[in-house]
Amino acid sequence: MMSIKHSRLYIIWCVCLAWQASASLAQTAGPRLAGEGIAVENLKVDKTDRHLVVSLDLNLDSLDMPANRQFVFTPLVEAKENNRTMPQIVVNGRKADITFRRGGSKRFAADVTAVRRKNNTEQTVSYSAVVPYEEWMRNCNVLIAQDLCGCGDTLDRDVVELRRLRSPFMPYVRPKAEGIKARVDSGKAFIDFPVDKITLYPDYRNNPSELDKIIRSINVVKNDRNTSITRVEIHGYASPESPYEHNAWLADNRAKTLTEYVRRLVNLPDTVFRVSSTPEDWAGLRDYVAKCSLPNRDKILETIDNTGLDPDAREWKIKLTWPDDYRVLLHECYPALRHSDYKVDYVVRPFTVDEAREILKTNPKLLSLEEMFLVAQTYEPGSDDFNNVMETAVRMFPADTTANLNAACARVELGDFDGAETYLAKVGDTPQAMHLRGVMAMMRGDHAEALRLLDAAIDGGDSTAQRNKDILLM
Predict the structure, then answer these.
(1) With contact defined as beta carbons under 8 Å apart, do 405 and 432 qualify?
(2) What class is the 181-346 domain?
(3) For the domain 368-472, what is the CATH code?
């Protein structure tokens, strides 16, 4: 068995730690005991689901131990009315050690760590103890009670604080209920029509697969018992070649033809469908040119952006001024500008928590943020299932501040502060974001910064930050 050191200590190692499985912090140098004679080094507190493990080294190098003296140290965990003692550590002088071995050890438990101090020598005692973990230990103090007279009396509270364990409250926010869960599925189809014609041939060129994309998108929603279609919109586009007025006629009538064909196949009422068109897709043309490597790209972009010219004038300028570039656009870009965009608007019925848990696995876009949050509450915070829900929520609602805040909280519980800051960047400097940054400062052990951020959150209206401030000041 090994031993420990002497004199009074009450060392405040204020590291605010969010406990998660296998969360631990080590310290290479710590408080001193027994009148500065013993240094506590390599202090480590580990928390698992079922145990609290405390380990440390007692450096006796500076301890000049009287031969007949005995120091007894009792590590313990304490929080308000609760406490739990750990196996003791006994450091004996030369004569006291003889007494200890001849029967003096009987007053100690069998798991005592005992050592004889050999003065004027380098000597280190390694100590480790395990106690069952209980919920009250989430916010507790790890102490050592000192008995420097060897009389067994620690009632005078001659103790040294080794560490404050603080588990911050994670400021998750319940999303607001979504009154009507409105969703949109959209896509782009490239339907081929014969030149200057508005007649649709379903078997023409790539039309079978392109038409199938539209039909399938509508039927998936239509056949889902959880959804109701409210509108189907088809928007037709033509490319810039040919006169603008002619392209307007083509885009409009091709969109109407396509809409009627689709309506018959999906068997939905006329009132559900909306038809619209854009005569020429100049936005698509500009996007292509901006990304290409045409020799006269910049000049063509200037022409596209020159809205002082009408569309026909712009198209003819590109065609006549840069004919080689125009031929590339005509063959490589213009076919893609003749497309039909489609949108399926629908509403989704509400789900119970049990239903939402299953929907989350197959089609999470049908869920509201609140429904996902309620599913998460059925799992242990910090667990893989819990974190997966939070990550899914922010993936489905990437711009939502509540989704990003909750995903950041989940990252913090994993100790991934960089990942948390990525999400917090979308939350801004809201009181809730300040609150979570205060929690991160607590976990880093930056007491002053944590207090500043929590106060800022409270001043901004986040009253829940007071809870973490209270933990910080315990």
Answers:
(1) yes
(2) alpha beta
(3) 1.25.40.10
